[in-house]
Write a structure and sequence with these properties.
The protein is mostly helical and 212 residues long. The protein has 7 helices and no strands. Helix content is 65%, strand content 0%. The radius of gyration is 44 Å and the shape is elongated.
Length: 212
C-alpha cells in the first residue's frame, strides 16, 4: 500500500508550478486606466466615467422650456368689456350707414335724421374710445406672452388705422349749408366712413376666425 502512495506522489511532482524569485525592477507597471467590460456585453466603460454629465442638448431643452404666462383678473375684465364693445359697434355701423345714405339721397335731409346720424356717430366714438383703451392696455400687459402675439399686433394696427379713419371722417363731415351749395361734398365723408368701418369689421372677423 505504501508503495502505491509513493508512486502517486512521484507522478504529480513534474506538474507542480515552479515559482522563481522576481526582481523588483522586473515588475510590470499596473495599468490603472484599463477599460472594464460589462458582464455579458462587448462594451467598455470610458476612463472618465466619473466626470460624465448631462448631454448638452438636454441642458438646452430644459433651459428653453416655455414659461406659463398668467394674466390678472383685471386683464380678463378688460377683455370682456372689449369684446362687448366690439359686438355693439356692428349694429351701429349698419344704422350709421343707412342714416348717411338717407341724408345723401335727400340733401340736406330732415333734422331728425341728421340728429340720429350724429347720435349714432357719438355712440361709435365712445365705443371706439373704450376699445382703444382696453385693447392697448391688454396689449401691453400681454407683451411677454408669445401665444397669439402676431394676431394681437395685427388686430391692434388695424383698429388704430380705423380710429384714424373715423377722425378723418368726422373732420370731413360737411354742414347742411355746404351740402345745399355742393351735394358732392358728402361723397368724401361717405368714402372715409365706409373705409373705416370696413377696416374695423375686417379686424373683428380676423379675431373670430384666427384663433391662437
Amino acid at each position: 500500500m505504501d508503495y502505491v502512495l509513493w508512486l502517486i506522489m512521484a507522478a504529480t511532482v513534474p506538474y507542480l508550478p515552479v515559482v522563481h524569485p522576481v526582481k523588483p525592477d522586473s515588475v510590470p507597471p499596473v495599468q490603472t486606466a484599463a477599460p472594464r467590460a460589462y458582464a455579458g456585453l462587448d462594451l467598455a466603460l470610458p476612463p472618465d466615467i466619473g466626470a460624465f454629465r448631462t448631454a448638452p442638448f438636454l441642458e438646452d431643452a430644459s433651459a428653453q422650456r416655455p414659461r406659463a404666462i398668467e394674466h390678472s383678473d383685471f386683464y380678463y375684465a378688460r377683455l370682456a368689456v372689449h369684446r362687448v364693445a366690439s359686438l355693439a359697434t356692428a349694429p351701429l355701423f349698419v344704422a350709421e350707414y343707412f342714416l348717411g345714405e338717407n341724408l345723401i339721397r335727400h340733401p340736406p335731409g330732415s333734422q331728425s335724421t341728421l340728429e340720429a346720424h350724429r347720435l349714432v356717430a357719438l355712440g361709435l366714438a365712445g365705443l371706439f374710445g373704450v376699445n382703444t383703451v382696453t385693447g392697448l392696455w391688454n396689449l401691453w400687459d400681454s407683451r411677454k406672452d408669445p401665444t397669439g402675439r402676431a394676431r394681437r399686433f395685427i388686430h391692434s394696427a388695424l383698429m388704430i388705422a380705423a380710429d384714424a379713419g373715423f377722425v378723418a371722417t368726422a373732420s370731413a363731415a360737411p354742414s347742411r349749408r355746404r351740402i345745399l351749395a355742393d351735394p358732392t361734398l358728402a361723397n368724401r365723408h361717405r368714402g372715409l366712413a365706409i373705409a373705416s368701418m370696413s377696416t374695423a369689421l375686417a379686424s373683428y372677423v380676423m379675431m373670430l376666425v384666427w384663433k391662437n
